[in-house]
Design a protein that fits this description.
The protein is of the alpha+beta class. It is built from 19 helices and ten strands.
Length: 482
């Protein structure tokens, strides 16, 4: 007889994880997790099948080249109990992760390589950052290896003493195998390598080539790319679209432009010296772009993560969007009947990064050399390729970007070879510093921009109000305010 309560708890944990993926929800669709089956005969109580969208799955079956297989169960890995894990010498070497963690093939590969280490993935539900922070505070029960989510790396790299500097274990000798900006993202201000690079989320532009054809706009990715090289050119394309097809928009809301253009800057709201730079030219530039698209009338003015977005995507009245590589997963779930009608090209203004993750080794554990040995093997090019095929986690190694595992055509994208766009995007991401307090301090700008969009608040007054709120909060957080 199955334990329904336990299974519901598992699924709640998985849903919570999807809510803490680091994805910028101001401009992307919700990554829903669907309850798809109930197997009452399961002796172990694995009663439900949770499915991530089958990203790239068309050619996975045909060529074994590119795809994302379904995540077919909540997780068979044991849930962490706070007891930590051994160092792998005569016991189990635990790898802490969240419910959408490493695939079975990835874990099997590393377990076969190090059979004496007893490597096991421990799935932590709920707020992973809080669990890890609490364990550090207790100074006991730390695992030999832990994951760090992309949205949490700014917080943890500001506490480098929590972790072993991976350069002392040999990371500096293999750092060149990974994208330089991703390596830098995992470093503390004083240069300690806190995070070992895992997956990334390079941003691109997704668009409906059939709608663009109908509107007389360039629909081939290579022909379209120069027409959307800058934000101004993208906005002009939006004006052309509305003239040809009234009621069709290239921007869902002004916050999406603000968010994406921020991702293209070397800094956001705070610099490395803990100075507030929210009044900098780079912030005003992003703000002005967001206001400009509103003035041009090319914004749908719909809130992200609502049924309105899904409806417009299905109808084709929102025939373009920008997002990370994994945004394809959202589109497949929101509009499966549009398969084959999409293409991707470079993002206006250049590529940024949203999402991704790292592995780290907590300070004070025994035999950190063994932990590093496992991590380095697990996340080499072959290991990252496996994760891409199984989970859609876009790799951060140079070798992966040139591998056959990423070279296939993508059915949902009309047979386009996505890597031809994603590789240059990944390689051109702007190296960006993000402070641990960045999101909290910057929230007022999104709030005020929403007021400009929804109620017509004066843009300059809104900017001044956002800056004043940011200064007040920054001072409370110990950030230097001029």
């Amino acid at each position: 007889m199955i334990n329904i309560a336990q299974q519901v708890a598992k699924c709640v944990a998985l849903v919570e994880d999807f809510a803490h993926t680091g994805r910028d929800l101001s401009h992307i669709g919700v990554s829903r997790v669907a309850l798809t089956s109930l197997n009452e005969d399961s002796e172990q109580g694995e009663i439900m099948t949770f499915t991530r969208r089958d990203v790239f799955k068309g050619t996975l079956l045909l060529a074994g080249l590119t795809g994302v297989a379904s995540l077919t169960s909540c997780s068979s890995a044991p849930r962490g109990d706070g007891g930590g894990g051994s160092d792998g010498a005569g016991g189990n070497m635990q790898v802490w992760n969240w419910p959408s963690g490493f695939s079975d093939p990835c874990m099997k590969r590393v377990q076969d390589k190090f059979p004496d280490y007893g490597i096991e993935q421990v799935v932590i539900g709920g707020d992973f950052k809080q669990k890890l922070t609490t364990t550090f505070a207790a100074k006991s029960g730390l695992p030999p290896i832990t994951g760090i989510k992309g949205e949490d790396i700014a917080f943890f790299r500001a506490k480098p003493d929590y972790f072993i500097d991976l350069n002392t274990l040999g990371f500096d000798k293999i750092a060149d195998e990974f994208l330089g900006w991703k390596v830098k993202q995992g470093q503390s201000v004083d240069g300690k390598q806190v995070g070992f690079p895992m997956d990334i989320g390079p941003t691109v532009m997704f668009y409906r080539h059939d709608i663009f054809d109908e509107a007389g706009l360039p629909s081939d990715p290579k022909e379209l790319e120069p027409r959307v090289a800058t934000w101004d050119e993208y906005f002009r394309l939006g004006e052309d679209l509305i003239k040809a097809k009234p009621g069709h928009y290239l921007v869902r809301n002004a916050g999406s432009v603000f968010s994406m253009s921020l991702a293209q800057q070397p800094y956001q709201f705070v610099d490395e010296d803990k100075n507030l730079i929210a009044d900098g030219d780079h912030i005003k530039k992003c703000w002005d772009l967001s206001v400009d698209c509103l003035k041009r009338g090319i914004v749908a003015k719909i809130q992200s993560n609502t049924p309105d977005v899904q409806a417009m995507v299905n109808e084709g009245t929102l025939p373009a969007d920008f997002g990370a590589s994994w945004h394809l997963d959202d589109l497949q779930g929101d509009a499966p009947d549009t398969s084959g009608k999409w293409h991707i090209t470079q993002c206006p203004g250049g590529a940024g990064n949203i999402g991704g993750s790292f592995l780290a080794i907590p300070a004070g554990i025994d035999n950190p050399e063994k932990s590093f040995e496992v991590i380095a093997y697990m996340m080499d090019a072959e290991g990252q390729n496996i994760e891409y095929v199984e989970k859609g986690h876009f790799p951060s190694t140079h070798a992966s970007l040139d591998s056959e595992a990423l070279a296939g055509e993508v059915e949902f994208l009309g047979g386009q070879k996505a890597i031809e766009v994603l590789k240059p995007a990944a390689e051109s991401v702007t190296e960006q510093f993000v402070d641990e307090n960045n999101d909290a301090i910057g929230a007022s700008f999104f709030t005020e921009l929403g007021q400009v969009e929804a109620s017509g608040k004066d843009p300059q007054k809104a900017f001044d109000d956002a800056l004043e709120a940011a200064k007040k909060l920054a001072g409370q957080m110990g950030v230097n305010v001029k």
